[in-house]
UniProtKB/TrEMBL annotation:
Pfam families: PDEase_II. The lineage of its organism: Eukaryota, Fungi, Dikarya, Basidiomycota, Agaricomycotina. InterPro entries: Pdiesterase2, RibonucZ/Hydroxyglut_hydro. It comes from the Eukaryota. Residues 267-287 are annotated as: Disordered. CDD domains: class_II_PDE_MBL-fold (cd07735). This is 3',5'-cyclic-nucleotide phosphodiesterase. Transmembrane segments: none annotated. One of its GO terms (molecular function) is 3',5'-cyclic-GMP phosphodiesterase activity. GO terms for biological process: cAMP catabolic process; negative regulation of glucose mediated signaling pathway. Gene3D superfamilies: Ribonuclease Z/Hydroxyacylglutathione hydrolase-like. It comes from Trametes pubescens (White-rot fungus).
Length: 352
């Protein structure tokens, strides 16, 4: 049985994902992962996919009624924001005025929330967010620390936050983004969701390998779904990545993850069989001789955030083009991961 259900409210232009534990209904509570798309997108999606959010009906005659966008929005229990770029918070900001009921927690790093607080400072937009729970605010900002802890964000889900690098503009510090490891508390199963991210090979402050090292021991039994961006198609020059991934770089990152998985399994085996003499030299993670074939079997990698093909270069949707390019590179290396193109309106049952 799947652990999480994820509905894609927006993937390319306005990344926004609704997540819930598979056993519960959307009405029981939604975690919004980024909030780039708002009520308008949700409204269109409800027309196209009325079945997704309809509550289960008791009898066949009793046809379920489709909830409104405002109703579905009201089921959001918590927002998790990877970084405060406009394409990731647009929906959060624009929906603030229509929010009903008690203020909802908006969670992210202190750095992310400070930028969001600036948006709601009363000039760019009304003061609808606060650092404390107050009756008149739509949101209250509640920071997540970048440490090893899993913090409960709902009754059944806890989150660990990892720092990511998202490009270094000229004469400016590296732009900070983050990744969330979401843990389903009852089953201890996880889903990994990355915000915008650049390759370690290009970054001034490489941070991805630490994330892969933490994730590796859980693959695939406790972690079998990773959401990661691949903004550009193949052939994009490193100097023009602007803090994002391209297929070749994403394949390299997945190869690092695969090496970490192999290393984690060797460690686990060595710990388990301490009486047996070591038969062969332990290979380091950076050792190119490490056999990574099949290391990511059972892992699904969901490709998000593909930038629109505004020049009309491709005859297929850009997310299919990019995911296809990633798939080819991952298959060439026989890493074993399944590559999935994410598109708006998709309902994903994230296993195991
Ligand atoms: Zn960004
Ligand atoms: Zn973005």
């Amino acid at each position: 049985m799947a652990t999480f259900d994820v509905f894609v409210v927006g993937s390319g232009g306005g990344p926004s994902y609704f997540l819930k534990p598979s056993g519960s209904s959307w009405q029981d509570g939604i975690i919004a992962l980024d909030a780039g798309s708002g009520l308008g997108a949700l409204n269109r999606l409800l027309t196209a996919h009325p079945e997704v959010f309809a509550p289960p009906s008791d009898t066949e005659e009793d046809a379920p009624t489709t909830p409104t966008a405002a109703q579905v929005n009201s089921w959001i229990q918590c927002y998790l924001i990877t970084h405060p770029h406009l394409d990731h918070i647009n929906g959060l900001v624009l929906s603030a005025g229509s929010a009903k009921g008690p203020s909802k927690p908006v969670r992210g790093t202190q750095e992310t929330l400070e930028v969001i607080a600036d948006v709601f400072a009363g000039k760019l937009w009304p003061a609808l967010a606060s650092w404390t729970e107050t009756p008149n605010a739509a949101y209250h900002l509640s920071p997540l620390l970048l440490d090893d802890d899993y913090v409960p964000v709902t009754d059944s889900i806890s989150v660990r936050t990892f720092p990511l690098s998202h490009g270094t503009p000229p004469d400016a510090p590296t732009y900070a983004s983050s990744a969330f490891a979401l843990r389903h508390i009852p089953s201890s199963r996880e889903l990994l969701f990355l915000g915008d991210v650049e390759p370690d090979a290009v970054a001034t402050e490489p941070q991805n390998s630490a994330l892969w090292r933490a994730a590796a021991p859980k693959i695939p039994h406790a972690l079998s779904a990773v959401f990661i961006e691949c903004s550009w198609p193949e052939g994009r020059a490193d100097a023009l990545l602007y803090g994002h991934l391209s297929p070749a770089h994403l394949a390299d990152e997945l190869a690092v993850l695969a090496r970490e998985v192999v290393a984690a399994r060797e460690r686990a085996q060595a710990d388990g069989g301490a009486d047996q003499p070591r038969k062969r030299r332990r290979k380091g993670v950076s050792d190119p001789e490490v056999d990574v074939r099949g290391a990511l079997a059972g892992l699904r990698v969901f490709i998000t955030h593909c930038k629109d093909d505004l020049q009309g270069v491709y005859d297929r949707p850009i997310h299919e083009v990019i995911a296809g390019q990633v798939r080819e590179l991952v298959e060439e290396r026989e890493l074993g991961a399944q590559i999935v193109a994410v598109e708006q309106g998709m309902l994903i049952c994230a296993s195991p």
